[in-house]
Amino acid sequence: MKERPVRPQYFADIRRQLALLRSSFSPDGRPIIGLVPTMGDLHAGHAALMERARAECDTVVVSIFVNPIQFDRRDDYEAYAIDLEKDVDFCATLGVDFVFAPSAQEMYPEPPSTFVEVAGFSAHLCGKFRPGHFRGVTTVVAKLFNIIAPDKAYFGEKDAQQLAVVERMVADLNMPVEIIAVPTVREPDGLALSSRNKRLTPQERAIAPALYGALEIGADCIRQGCTSATQVRRAALAHLRRHPELRVEYLEVVDASSMTPVETIGGPVCIATAAWLGAVRLIDNVLIDNIGT
Q1: Residues 51, 168: one domain?
Q2: Contact partners, residue 165, CB within 8 Å, separation at least 6
């Protein structure tokens, strides 16, 4: 195992550490700093983000913070338990240099009055069913960018809408950070890795891959030339009806850039879905950019 990452407790500490690091480089060069924002409970999906950051950056910072203002349900927030020492050990195996794990009190010493919100992009899909969620996401990501000042930040394609929202925030606000999208990591049966998967019962875990199966059916329709979003949805939902335990919240065909629903498929699209399985909410998506091939 690599030496354990430095773990500054307060944002003044991480800023000071990174300032010292930057000053240690010659005037002709500067370290490339990569940030992997997480909420802890780390798994192989997070590892893919860290590995990509390690390959591309001089210094890798992983933030671990369960952000209270992005949860629309208090019970969901309280159920998000993490083992910080275990997560720090996990980061060490991936060569992470710094783990920044602030408390909620550190990040929000007072109830916030200032928020960052990306209009339009967060109105559909998860944004429709989780009011305020993406406002909480973009606000905390903006805070982390201000604290760490990374050159690159790494996000998983599994959270496609989150990725699109963050990309638009960075573009609109001229933030000097490059957003790197990392492909979804899946179990052998197709289930997208998620910290929530461990909450599934064995019976629910056996059913969960049907979500990805439905998305692949929809994707195959598009690859075979179907341009009707309605027909794609109908084919995917027919598969899910074979598994009534999955309570579908939404299944939509959306523009891959704006995350807005489309009726006619003429360019890159994302088929995105969310469904409840027992008490666990699962999300997944597939991107189709090779239309008609």
Answers
A1: yes
A2: 118, 121, 122, 134, 137, 138, 259
